Amino acid sequence: MSETLALDGRCLCGAVGVHASRASRHFGACHCKMCRQWGGGPYLAFEAGADVSFDGEEHISVYDSSPWAERGFCRQCGSHLFYRIKQGPIYMLPPGLFDDDAGFVFGRQVFVDRNPGYYRFANETDEMTEAEVFAKYAPPES
Q1: How many domains does the chain have?
Q2: Domain for residue 108, yes or no?
Q3: Does the pTM exceed 0.85?
């Protein structure tokens, strides 16, 4: 079984289509406060690298959520389309956008030290704390 997938998906209203040529099979959950505020719970996403394209880009709004990342959503229906690390860029896409979800594996959780405690996943996963995430992804301060 391949570690990457080519996937086509769409937002809830269909105004935005998304194509990921090299999507990871492995998705994770982010428990940071910003993700929980954005969607009401942890953000579930897989890494798709830079090889992502969109149809209906005129319907995409982008929120610059930090100096190193931004979040995209459909301005028609509000569907979360991506979390993007600007340097790269590296897209993180929610698996729920895609009809073909049979190949996904839940394998990672980040900001585990920020999980509020009112939910827990039963899956055994790799885990990263806030400090570990910032050390890996955040650009050095100048």
Answers
A1: 1
A2: yes
A3: yes
